[in-house]
Amino acid sequence: MLAFVVIFLSFTLGASVSLCIIVMGSSPRYRNSVIGRIYEMAIYVPIICGGACFSLFYFCDQRKGREAYEQWWDSTSKYREWTFVILYAALVWPIEYVYLLHALPELSASTWSKALSWALVLSSEVFYALAVFTNPGRVTPGWELEKQREYVFRSKKKSFPAQKRTNGSARKQKKDQTTYTNLLIKLCDSIKKHFCWKWRCSAFREEEEHVLNNHYAIDGIIYPASGCYSPNAHATPKKVECDDHETLMPIGMTCLTCFIPRPSRSKHCRYCNVCVRRFDHHCPWINNDVAEGTHRYFMTFLFLHTVSCLWASSDLFRCIKQFLLKNNAWGWKLRLSNDQTITLGYIDYARVLIFLQPRNVFLIFFAGIMSIFLYCFFIYNLRFVIRNVTINDLNKMEDLADFLSEMPTLDLVYQEAMKYCERLEKVAFRRPKALYRLPKPPFANEPGYEEGGKKNKKYRDYVRRALLIDLRGLFDRGVWNNLKEVFFPYQVLDETRISAVKQATTSS
User: Fold this and answer.
1) Predicted pLDDT of residue 199
2) Residue 333 is assigned to a structural domain of this protein
3) Which residue, of 53, 75, 97, is where some domain finishes?
4) What local confidence, expressed as pLDDT, does residue 115 receive?
5) DSSP conformation class of 138
6) Same domain, 455 and 505
7) Under DSSP, is residue 508 helix (H, G, I), strand (E, B) or coil?
8) Degrees (nearest 5) of the Cα angle 334, 335, 338?
């Protein structure tokens, strides 16, 4: 019995640690830690094993076997897109079914308590579905944009037959029908914006997408510019000479796949094969990008799933307590029918519960471990949301800080840091402070400041930390505004901005 408990707890702990390494290992915070190194070793295990299997077809040539495995892996990637979603449904939904329809009816609780249990589970699954099927903020590729413009141009050239004069009742009926049609079109557009099926259709009109693409300015630090454009002259950015920095705005680097200038904070997702605005990361568990349109649903799903697991743990604990009270075994004592009592220990309770309440024991362990893991993951992501920083932003900031700290001399490190400080003063929402406190480096011939010296390394680490602190203020507008940007990403689509873009398009 003790061996069974030890094996069960060891398996649970191992699964939790493995899941933590898989999720956290690729983040910039843990890149150089033990978790990051274990993650890097773990991702090479399938490649090594797959290459060894494929090498059998090439007379044990490991190089050819690995190349064949990688080619097979890339060619079959589209068939594995929904694997984790199906795995989630196969793993979680049966457990929720057993909890709601078998364990919960046995609990002696109020109707409101049971209704809350149902509401938490169902609402978490609703937001999971929203995170899976919602348009993440897809940027329309250049070739698709040209097709849309050509279609609009051809539709405007169509000539419609003259309408016959009608009486008042017919005109009123036609007006009501037109109003109903307009409402239906608006409803379809609203659904289309949020639930584009696999992003096969354009979620926004051209002028709306222009407003969203230019919501964040190209900072020229972590998101470099390839040129400038005049915002008053063209609805679509066109490169011009950057002579006047007052009236011209920088334009992002061109995506070589989509053939469009990348908006600030966007990234081309290699899994979805599209550029996505305010890209955070691609989550295989939802087979979607956590980005502009899905970040709010992803965070809400994590929160509700955490609360539902905690509430389920409470319900299941009450079920177990109810069972023990019914059998006079609550309070570390077993009361027999002849008024005798037997003292119970941890091992005794473990035996009783595992053999007499195996379903509830399994469910409470699963819910408890998932609640701890989801709570940690939710807090980890909430820290980024509060600062208005994405994982993609952090990766670029880490790369820039590493590049700066590894420059040949301390003088170059200091000079480049001051250049970044001046640029941050112009484009960052939160003024830089750490870089202003950066002291000038002493001469390289001073003891400890020679290349490889302890003080030299300490100064480089200090510059790196100071740059990271100030870079995180690039998009920081305050906690409340940062939360609004994540949970209400399309509030920038007001009629004033859209009308201005329409007028600019018409005049050009």
Assistant:
1) 43
2) no
3) 75
4) 95
5) E
6) no
7) coil
8) 140
Cβ atoms of 471 and 221 closer than 8 Å: yes
Residue 125 located in a structural domain: no
Are residues 250 and 149 part of one domain?
yes
- The backbone torsions φ and ψ at residue 453, rounded to the nearest 5 degrees and listed phi first, read -75, 160
Beta bridge partners of 166: none
Q: Which residues of 193-204 are buried (b: 16+ CB within 10 A; e: fewer)?
A: beebeebeebbb
Does a structural domain hold residue 384?
no
DSSP code of 134?
S
pLDDT tens per residue across span 207-235? 888 888 888 888 889 998 876 665 554 44
Residue whose structure tokens are 């379809």: 188
Closest by CA position to 250, among listed 222, 277, 218: 218
Tell which of 52, 75, 98 closes a domain: 75
Do residue 239 and residue 179 come from a single domain? Answer: yes
Residues 5 and 70 in one domain: yes
Could you tell me which residues are beta bridge partners of residue 250?
A: 228
Question: What are the tens digits of pLDDT across the range 169-208?
Answer: 555 555 555 565 566 555 555 555 554 444 434 468 888 8
The parent domain of residue 284 ranges over 140-154+173-291+496-508
Cα 145–chain centre separation: 26
159-162 own/partner pairs: CB under 8 Å, 24+ apart: none
In a domain, 367, yes or no: no
Q: Which residues of 241-250 are buried (b: 16+ CB within 10 A; e: fewer)?
A: eeeeeeebbb
Domains contained in the chain, number: 3
* 452 CB-side CA count, 13 A: 0
Composition of the chain by helix, strand, coil, percent to 5: 65, 5, 30
Give the span between the Cα atoms of 43 and 25, in whole angstroms.
10
Do 275 and 147 belong to one domain?
yes
pLDDT along the chain (508 residues), means of 10: 64 71 69 77 82 85 86 77 89 94 92 95 96 92 70 56 52 56 58 47 73 87 77 48 54 85 91 91 91 95 96 94 87 79 82 87 90 91 94 92 91 93 92 91 79 87 94 93 94 78 65
Q: Which residue has the tokens 């006047």?
A: 244
148 & 59 share domain: no
Torsion of CA 372, 382, 129, 148, to 10 degrees: -160
3-state secondary structure string, 61-126? Answer: CHHHHHHHHHHHHHHCHHHHCCHHHHHHHHHHHHHHHHHHHHHHHHCCCCHHHHHHHHHHHHHHHH
The answer to whether residues 47 and 146 belong to one domain is no
Rounded to whole angstroms, the Cα distance separating 391 from 27 reads 7
Distant-in-sequence, close-in-space partners of 381: CB < 8 Å, separation ≥ 6: 298, 299, 302
Same domain, 502 and 467: no
CA 81 centroid distance within chain: 17
